[in-house]
Design a protein that fits this description.
By secondary structure, the chain is mainly alpha-helical. It has helices at 2-13, 18-29. The radius of gyration is 8 Å and the shape is flat.
């Protein structure tokens, strides 16, 4: 679970896969 948080923080800075960051951030917010 904590791994997703790191991926989200890095994904926000990386415009490589913004779609993958959006679903992950939603899961963490929930």
């Amino acid at each position: 679970m904590f791994v997703n948080r790191r991926y989200t923080a890095r994904g926000k800075n990386l415009p490589s896969s913004p779609q993958k960051v959006r679903p992950i951030a939603d899961n963490i917010r929930r």
